[in-house]
Amino acid sequence: MERAVSNALDHWRPPFLADSSQLETRIDALERDLAEVKLSLLQERQVAQPPELSSELKQEPVSHKEPEPEPTCSKAPTPMPADQAPHQRPEVLACARSCLQLRDQGGAPLDGVYWFTGMPVPVYCDFSHDGGGWTLLLTAVSRAGWDVLSVLSRNHSSPSLTENYSILHYADTIRDLGTGRRFAYRIETQAEKGRQQWGGVWLAPRSYSFVHESPSQTDVAVVRKFNGWNYHDNGIERRMPWVHTAGGQPAVLTTSASPSSSWWGTMVTFHGSGGFDHSPWIHPESTRSGTVLYWIREELL
Protein backbone atom coordinates (compact mmCIF):
# COMPACT_ATOMS: atom_id res chain seq x y z
CA MET A 1 0.00 0.00 0.00
CA GLU A 2 2.77 2.42 0.93
CA ARG A 3 4.67 1.67 -2.27
CA ALA A 4 1.55 2.30 -4.36
CA VAL A 5 0.88 5.61 -2.65
CA SER A 6 4.50 6.61 -3.11
CA ASN A 7 4.43 5.72 -6.81
CA ALA A 8 1.23 7.64 -7.28
CA LEU A 9 2.67 10.66 -5.61
CA ASP A 10 5.83 10.45 -7.69
CA HIS A 11 3.85 10.53 -10.95
CA TRP A 12 1.07 12.84 -9.94
CA ARG A 13 1.44 16.39 -11.10
CA PRO A 14 -1.63 18.57 -10.60
CA PRO A 15 -1.98 21.09 -13.42
CA PHE A 16 -2.47 24.06 -11.11
CA LEU A 17 0.93 23.55 -9.41
CA ALA A 18 3.30 25.04 -11.90
CA ASP A 19 6.71 24.97 -10.16
CA SER A 20 8.44 22.04 -8.44
CA SER A 21 8.73 23.68 -4.97
CA GLN A 22 4.99 23.95 -4.62
CA LEU A 23 4.65 20.33 -5.72
CA GLU A 24 7.16 19.09 -3.12
CA THR A 25 5.40 21.04 -0.37
CA ARG A 26 2.09 19.46 -1.29
CA ILE A 27 3.60 15.97 -1.40
CA ASP A 28 5.10 16.41 2.09
CA ALA A 29 1.71 17.44 3.45
CA LEU A 30 0.02 14.40 1.88
CA GLU A 31 2.65 12.05 3.34
CA ARG A 32 2.13 13.50 6.84
CA ASP A 33 -1.64 13.08 6.52
CA LEU A 34 -1.15 9.48 5.41
CA ALA A 35 1.13 8.73 8.37
CA GLU A 36 -1.43 10.13 10.81
CA VAL A 37 -4.19 7.98 9.30
CA LYS A 38 -2.05 4.82 9.57
CA LEU A 39 -1.18 5.59 13.19
CA SER A 40 -4.85 6.13 14.04
CA LEU A 41 -5.82 2.78 12.47
CA LEU A 42 -3.07 0.95 14.36
CA GLN A 43 -4.20 2.36 17.72
CA GLU A 44 -7.81 1.35 17.05
CA ARG A 45 -6.75 -2.27 16.36
CA GLN A 46 -4.71 -2.42 19.62
CA VAL A 47 -7.69 -1.26 21.68
CA ALA A 48 -10.05 -3.72 20.03
CA GLN A 49 -7.67 -6.72 20.33
CA PRO A 50 -5.22 -6.40 23.28
CA PRO A 51 -2.14 -8.60 22.88
CA GLU A 52 -1.68 -11.85 24.83
CA LEU A 53 0.13 -11.51 28.13
CA SER A 54 3.67 -12.86 28.00
CA SER A 55 4.38 -16.06 29.87
CA GLU A 56 6.43 -14.06 32.37
CA LEU A 57 3.38 -11.93 33.28
CA LYS A 58 0.87 -14.75 33.52
CA GLN A 59 0.23 -15.64 37.16
CA GLU A 60 -0.49 -19.07 38.47
CA PRO A 61 -3.45 -19.37 40.80
CA VAL A 62 -2.43 -18.88 44.44
CA SER A 63 -2.44 -22.07 46.48
CA HIS A 64 -3.81 -21.67 50.00
CA LYS A 65 -2.14 -24.54 51.85
CA GLU A 66 -3.59 -25.34 55.24
CA PRO A 67 -1.06 -24.96 58.10
CA GLU A 68 0.08 -28.16 59.73
CA PRO A 69 -1.73 -28.86 63.00
CA GLU A 70 0.12 -28.40 66.27
CA PRO A 71 1.46 -31.70 67.65
CA THR A 72 -0.48 -33.34 70.46
CA CYS A 73 1.49 -33.39 73.70
CA SER A 74 1.23 -34.62 77.27
CA LYS A 75 2.30 -32.82 80.44
CA ALA A 76 2.76 -36.16 82.21
CA PRO A 77 4.54 -38.32 79.63
CA THR A 78 6.08 -41.71 80.33
CA PRO A 79 9.50 -42.66 78.97
CA MET A 80 9.62 -44.30 75.55
CA PRO A 81 10.39 -48.04 75.64
CA ALA A 82 14.14 -48.56 75.34
CA ASP A 83 13.72 -51.72 73.27
CA GLN A 84 12.04 -49.74 70.48
CA ALA A 85 15.19 -47.82 69.56
CA PRO A 86 15.87 -46.36 67.10
CA HIS A 87 12.84 -44.36 68.11
CA GLN A 88 10.26 -43.01 65.69
CA ARG A 89 8.51 -39.71 66.41
CA PRO A 90 5.41 -40.62 68.46
CA GLU A 91 1.93 -39.23 67.91
CA VAL A 92 1.91 -37.71 71.41
CA LEU A 93 5.00 -35.71 72.42
CA ALA A 94 6.08 -34.42 75.82
CA CYS A 95 4.77 -30.91 76.55
CA ALA A 96 8.23 -29.45 77.16
CA ARG A 97 11.34 -28.60 75.19
CA SER A 98 13.96 -30.10 77.48
CA CYS A 99 14.43 -32.37 80.46
CA LEU A 100 14.73 -29.36 82.77
CA GLN A 101 11.42 -27.92 81.54
CA LEU A 102 9.75 -31.28 82.10
CA ARG A 103 11.14 -31.41 85.64
CA ASP A 104 9.93 -27.89 86.38
CA GLN A 105 6.37 -28.71 85.31
CA GLY A 106 5.98 -30.73 88.49
CA GLY A 107 5.06 -34.33 88.99
CA ALA A 108 7.72 -36.98 89.24
CA PRO A 109 9.07 -37.76 85.75
CA LEU A 110 11.13 -40.92 85.42
CA ASP A 111 14.60 -41.28 83.95
CA GLY A 112 14.48 -42.38 80.33
CA VAL A 113 13.91 -41.36 76.72
CA TYR A 114 11.45 -38.58 75.82
CA TRP A 115 10.55 -36.80 72.61
CA PHE A 116 9.89 -33.10 73.27
CA THR A 117 8.00 -30.55 71.22
CA GLY A 118 10.42 -28.51 69.14
CA MET A 119 13.12 -31.20 69.24
CA PRO A 120 13.87 -33.14 66.03
CA VAL A 121 15.28 -36.13 67.95
CA PRO A 122 14.48 -38.02 71.16
CA VAL A 123 16.64 -37.38 74.23
CA TYR A 124 17.58 -39.21 77.42
CA CYS A 125 16.65 -37.41 80.66
CA ASP A 126 18.18 -37.87 84.11
CA PHE A 127 15.95 -36.77 86.99
CA SER A 128 17.78 -38.77 89.68
CA HIS A 129 21.15 -37.03 90.06
CA ASP A 130 22.39 -33.54 90.88
CA GLY A 131 18.94 -32.01 91.09
CA GLY A 132 17.58 -33.62 87.93
CA GLY A 133 16.66 -32.04 84.62
CA TRP A 134 19.78 -33.22 82.79
CA THR A 135 19.81 -33.97 79.05
CA LEU A 136 22.29 -36.57 77.79
CA LEU A 137 24.52 -35.27 74.99
CA LEU A 138 27.01 -38.07 74.52
CA THR A 139 27.81 -41.61 75.58
CA ALA A 140 31.21 -43.06 74.66
CA VAL A 141 31.69 -46.71 75.60
CA SER A 142 34.63 -47.51 73.30
CA ARG A 143 36.99 -46.05 70.69
CA ALA A 144 35.11 -47.70 67.83
CA GLY A 145 33.71 -45.34 65.21
CA TRP A 146 34.64 -41.99 66.73
CA ASP A 147 35.98 -39.07 64.72
CA VAL A 148 35.28 -35.32 64.39
CA LEU A 149 32.01 -36.02 62.54
CA SER A 150 30.54 -38.81 64.65
CA VAL A 151 31.29 -36.90 67.86
CA LEU A 152 28.70 -34.34 66.71
CA SER A 153 25.98 -36.81 65.78
CA ARG A 154 25.89 -40.56 66.26
CA ASN A 155 22.92 -42.93 66.67
CA HIS A 156 20.87 -39.79 67.33
CA SER A 157 17.56 -41.69 67.39
CA SER A 158 18.83 -44.14 70.02
CA PRO A 159 19.76 -42.33 73.26
CA SER A 160 21.56 -44.79 75.51
CA LEU A 161 23.74 -45.03 78.62
CA THR A 162 25.38 -48.21 77.36
CA GLU A 163 25.93 -47.65 73.60
CA ASN A 164 27.94 -45.08 71.66
CA TYR A 165 25.71 -42.08 71.05
CA SER A 166 25.90 -38.31 70.45
CA ILE A 167 23.65 -35.30 69.80
CA LEU A 168 26.42 -32.83 70.57
CA HIS A 169 25.48 -30.63 67.59
CA TYR A 170 22.10 -29.94 69.30
CA ALA A 171 23.72 -28.96 72.61
CA ASP A 172 23.92 -25.22 71.90
CA THR A 173 20.23 -25.24 70.93
CA ILE A 174 19.36 -26.75 74.31
CA ARG A 175 21.72 -24.29 76.05
CA ASP A 176 19.80 -21.41 74.47
CA LEU A 177 16.57 -22.53 76.15
CA GLY A 178 18.01 -21.12 79.36
CA THR A 179 17.78 -17.48 80.33
CA GLY A 180 20.62 -17.14 82.85
CA ARG A 181 24.20 -15.99 82.42
CA ARG A 182 25.57 -19.51 82.91
CA PHE A 183 24.58 -23.09 82.24
CA ALA A 184 25.71 -26.38 83.79
CA TYR A 185 27.41 -29.38 82.25
CA ARG A 186 28.30 -32.71 83.84
CA ILE A 187 30.93 -35.31 83.02
CA GLU A 188 30.85 -38.87 84.35
CA THR A 189 33.44 -41.53 83.53
CA GLN A 190 33.75 -45.25 84.28
CA ALA A 191 29.95 -45.27 84.21
CA GLU A 192 29.98 -49.00 83.60
CA LYS A 193 30.98 -49.30 87.28
CA GLY A 194 28.41 -46.85 88.63
CA ARG A 195 27.19 -43.30 88.33
CA GLN A 196 28.98 -40.08 89.35
CA GLN A 197 32.49 -41.41 88.94
CA TRP A 198 35.69 -39.38 88.26
CA GLY A 199 34.17 -36.23 86.87
CA GLY A 200 31.91 -33.53 88.18
CA VAL A 201 29.51 -30.68 87.52
CA TRP A 202 30.69 -27.36 86.08
CA LEU A 203 29.22 -23.96 85.33
CA ALA A 204 30.13 -22.14 82.12
CA PRO A 205 29.23 -18.75 80.60
CA ARG A 206 26.23 -18.92 78.32
CA SER A 207 28.38 -17.74 75.41
CA TYR A 208 30.44 -20.96 75.56
CA SER A 209 29.78 -23.57 72.89
CA PHE A 210 29.73 -27.35 73.14
CA VAL A 211 31.23 -27.59 69.64
CA HIS A 212 34.04 -25.07 70.13
CA GLU A 213 37.20 -25.99 68.23
CA SER A 214 39.96 -24.48 70.38
CA PRO A 215 41.10 -24.79 74.02
CA SER A 216 40.20 -21.17 74.85
CA GLN A 217 37.02 -21.74 76.92
CA THR A 218 38.68 -21.74 80.33
CA ASP A 219 36.31 -19.60 82.43
CA VAL A 220 34.59 -22.61 83.96
CA ALA A 221 33.91 -23.35 87.62
CA VAL A 222 33.63 -26.83 89.09
CA VAL A 223 30.84 -26.91 91.69
CA ARG A 224 30.79 -30.62 92.41
CA LYS A 225 33.56 -33.23 92.09
CA PHE A 226 33.09 -36.95 91.73
CA ASN A 227 36.01 -38.64 93.55
CA GLY A 228 39.23 -36.91 94.53
CA TRP A 229 41.04 -35.27 91.64
CA ASN A 230 42.71 -31.94 90.91
CA TYR A 231 43.30 -30.01 87.71
CA HIS A 232 46.66 -30.84 86.10
CA ASP A 233 48.28 -31.58 82.74
CA ASN A 234 48.02 -35.34 83.29
CA GLY A 235 44.30 -35.23 83.94
CA ILE A 236 41.28 -32.97 83.64
CA GLU A 237 42.32 -29.44 82.74
CA ARG A 238 40.37 -26.32 83.61
CA ARG A 239 38.46 -25.76 80.36
CA MET A 240 35.20 -26.83 78.80
CA PRO A 241 35.61 -29.90 76.56
CA TRP A 242 36.32 -28.87 72.97
CA VAL A 243 36.34 -30.62 69.59
CA HIS A 244 39.87 -31.25 68.33
CA THR A 245 39.56 -31.19 64.53
CA ALA A 246 43.19 -31.89 63.59
CA GLY A 247 43.11 -34.87 61.27
CA GLY A 248 44.56 -38.15 62.52
CA GLN A 249 45.16 -36.88 66.05
CA PRO A 250 44.11 -39.16 68.92
CA ALA A 251 41.97 -36.71 70.94
CA VAL A 252 38.55 -35.84 69.51
CA LEU A 253 36.69 -34.36 72.52
CA THR A 254 39.08 -33.24 75.22
CA THR A 255 39.91 -30.85 78.06
CA SER A 256 43.62 -30.89 77.18
CA ALA A 257 45.40 -27.71 76.07
CA SER A 258 47.88 -29.69 73.93
CA PRO A 259 46.12 -32.86 72.77
CA SER A 260 48.64 -33.55 70.01
CA SER A 261 51.40 -34.16 72.57
CA SER A 262 49.66 -34.73 75.92
CA TRP A 263 46.11 -35.96 75.67
CA TRP A 264 45.19 -36.82 79.23
CA GLY A 265 41.78 -35.43 80.13
CA THR A 266 40.27 -36.76 76.91
CA MET A 267 36.67 -37.96 76.76
CA VAL A 268 36.45 -39.28 73.17
CA THR A 269 39.34 -40.80 71.25
CA PHE A 270 39.81 -41.15 67.49
CA HIS A 271 38.83 -44.71 66.55
CA GLY A 272 42.30 -45.75 65.38
CA SER A 273 44.34 -44.39 68.27
CA GLY A 274 45.77 -45.59 71.55
CA GLY A 275 45.32 -48.56 73.81
CA PHE A 276 43.24 -46.99 76.53
CA ASP A 277 39.78 -48.14 77.48
CA HIS A 278 38.79 -46.03 75.83
CA SER A 279 40.50 -42.66 76.49
CA PRO A 280 43.33 -41.46 78.78
CA TRP A 281 41.64 -39.64 81.64
CA ILE A 282 43.41 -38.93 84.98
CA HIS A 283 46.91 -40.21 85.75
CA PRO A 284 47.43 -42.10 87.96
CA GLU A 285 44.08 -42.26 89.80
CA SER A 286 41.82 -43.07 86.85
CA THR A 287 43.98 -43.69 83.83
CA ARG A 288 41.17 -45.17 81.72
CA SER A 289 38.04 -43.16 81.16
CA GLY A 290 35.81 -46.17 80.67
CA THR A 291 32.26 -45.24 79.65
CA VAL A 292 31.88 -41.46 79.42
CA LEU A 293 28.54 -39.67 79.93
CA TYR A 294 28.26 -35.98 79.01
CA TRP A 295 25.22 -33.94 80.07
CA ILE A 296 23.75 -30.44 79.85
CA ARG A 297 21.38 -28.48 82.03
CA GLU A 298 20.54 -25.07 80.60
CA GLU A 299 20.05 -23.41 83.99
CA LEU A 300 22.12 -23.38 87.18
CA LEU A 301 21.80 -25.99 89.92
TrEMBL record:
<keyword id="KW-0430">Lectin</keyword>
<dbReference type="GO" id="GO:0005615">
    <property type="term" value="C:extracellular space"/>
</dbReference>
<dbReference type="GO" id="GO:0070492">
    <property type="term" value="F:oligosaccharide binding"/>
</dbReference>
<feature type="compositionally biased region" description="Basic and acidic residues">
    <location>
        <begin position="55"/>
        <end position="68"/>
    </location>
</feature>
<dbReference type="InterPro" id="IPR014716">
    <property type="entry name" value="Fibrinogen_a/b/g_C_1"/>
</dbReference>
<keyword id="KW-0479">Metal-binding</keyword>
<protein>
    <recommendedName>
        <fullName>Fibrinogen C-terminal domain-containing protein</fullName>
    </recommendedName>
</protein>
<dbReference type="GO" id="GO:0046872">
    <property type="term" value="F:metal ion binding"/>
</dbReference>
<feature type="coiled-coil region">
    <location>
        <begin position="20"/>
        <end position="47"/>
    </location>
</feature>
<keyword id="KW-1015">Disulfide bond</keyword>
<dbReference type="InterPro" id="IPR036056">
    <property type="entry name" value="Fibrinogen-like_C"/>
</dbReference>
<keyword id="KW-0106">Calcium</keyword>
<feature type="region of interest" description="Disordered">
    <location>
        <begin position="48"/>
        <end position="86"/>
    </location>
</feature>
<keyword id="KW-0175">Coiled coil</keyword>
